[in-house]
Design goal:
Length: 243
């Protein structure tokens, strides 16, 4: 694990296609509220800025040859935030999906929503499902975790297996019944905002992930720092419990 105390001096890092070593990157996009507060703006403005950064960073990762990008956009616990903030995040997601239909095509990406869509508004749910269906034959994957909680995900997977009549299960059974069945486990999880926690995100899938923690607030994250995280990842020796 790595935590940068000082803001990294950004030097250009020359990376091209890293997809063979880094197939799946996941982001915990934290710090939008603090970014807004520091500018005396309402929290919603932090999310707005965060949504535009999300788009830039996602496209940057695809351009590096990364096969799957996962972002934690809204957790099962985030419903407890003030209604105004919840509505603002949902509106940003809805706007993004309208706008991203074409972008998904340009990047040959398919959309996958990780999470329980039943609590979303009917229009957001319908829109997300339409784009998921429309993009399903594309090669890259953009997972947006929305009304997502990793413990619920594991419980849901187990209940599906029980409903299928299983009386004992394997690891592969569980993995293939998680929302991430298509993209598999993340190789690298990046958390912005300075906290060292996993916050109920990809608990099963990140068993052997590498972690990169940075104090940078999500709206301040740059492509350069993502490249620094990737370079750090490429320099690590993944032992998977071996020597
Ligand atoms: C955490 O920061 C961020 C969220 C709960 C929402 C993330 C949402 C977006 C980036 C916008 C919509 C996303 C897409 C995919 C279009 P925080 O609010 O907890 O920040 P804080 O810790 O500084 O308060």
């Amino acid at each position: 694990m790595l935590f940068r105390k000082k803001k990294r001096e950004e030097k250009p890092i020359f990376l091209e296609n890293v997809g063979d070593s880094l197939r799946h990157i996941a982001f915990i996009m934290d710090g939008n509220g603090r970014w807004a507060k520091a500018r005396s703006l309402p929290r919603e403005m932090g999310h707005k800025k965060g949504a535009s950064v999300f788009e830039r960073i996602t496209l940057h990762c695809f351009s590096r040859g990364i096969h799957a990008v996962t972002v934690y956009a809204f957790s099962t616990e985030n419903w407890s935030r003030p209604q105004k903030e919840v509505d603002a995040i949902m509106a940003l997601l809805s706007d993004y999906l309208d706008y991203a239909e074409q972008k998904f095509k340009d990047y040959d990406a398919r959309l996958v929503i990780l999470g329980d869509k039943s609590r979303l508004s009917p229009s957001l749910r319908e829109k997300a499902e339409r784009i998921e269906e429309m993009s399903k034959d594309r090669s890259h994957i953009l997972n947006i975790a929305l009304n997502y909680g990793a413990r619920d995900e594991i419980v849901t997977a187990c209940n599906s297996l029980i409903a299928e009549g299983k009386t004992s299960v394997t690891r592969d059974d569980i993995s293939s019944h998680l929302y991430t069945a298509l993209s598999g486990d993340p190789d690298l999880v990046v958390r912005t905002g300075g906290d060292f926690r996993i916050s109920n995100f990809l608990l099963w899938q990140s068993a052997y992930a590498e972690f990169y923690f940075t104090k940078t607030l999500w709206p301040d994250l740059t492509e350069g720092e993502v490249d620094a995280a990737i370079a750090e990842f490429l320099g690590r020796h993944r032992r998977y419990g071996g020597l």
